[in-house]
Amino acid sequence: MTRTRLTAAERSEQLVEAAIAAFAKGGYAGTATDDIARLAGVSQPYVIRLFGSKQALFITVIEHVSGRIQQAFRDAAPTEGAQLHDLANGFDRLLEERYLLPVLLHGFAAANADDEIGRTARRCYGDIFYLVRELTGVTAAEASDFIAKGMLLTVLASMRVIGPDQVEQSPWMTEMIGSFDHDGHYRP
């Protein structure tokens, strides 16, 4: 059986996807580049050769996740007259990607201890905020409320209260997600 040789770009993408899964489970401090290498089926020195350091790989992952969130919002927005509920539909699709949103939370947590990660996390968060405003034309307060509710969803998805890996519901969960529609989707 012959193995298909991946291009450097394909291998880099494969490593970023493995890193998303690994960092989502273990966070920045709790994940070794060896963990990521094992998931991707490559050697740990190869990971370092491609990215330079665990920090650089984590920053790449944060930027990648932010880009996917932004692309989901762009894809969900109609050509003209986008509303927050259009972007909420895009966010609903992100909830299906089990590891995507938890890794973002780990990025925010790591921002407290690492200045470079912090600068990247803040820039990416700001980019999302401005994109919401650009696509919908809402006020800063309306965009802030939308993003705050999105963060609540991110936390709930990370705890598996909502999403594809949802656990059994407790009364507090049922009450908290009462602002969702009958299909379990967030509506601004």
UniProtKB/TrEMBL annotation:
<dbReference type="Pfam" id="PF00440">
    <property type="entry name" value="TetR_N"/>
</dbReference>
<keyword id="KW-0238">DNA-binding</keyword>
<dbReference type="InterPro" id="IPR050109">
    <property type="entry name" value="HTH-type_TetR-like_transc_reg"/>
</dbReference>
<feature type="domain" description="HTH tetR-type">
    <location>
        <begin position="9"/>
        <end position="69"/>
    </location>
</feature>
<protein>
    <submittedName>
        <fullName>TetR family transcriptional regulator</fullName>
    </submittedName>
</protein>
<feature type="DNA-binding region" description="H-T-H motif">
    <location>
        <begin position="32"/>
        <end position="51"/>
    </location>
</feature>
<dbReference type="InterPro" id="IPR009057">
    <property type="entry name" value="Homeodomain-like_sf"/>
</dbReference>
<dbReference type="InterPro" id="IPR001647">
    <property type="entry name" value="HTH_TetR"/>
</dbReference>
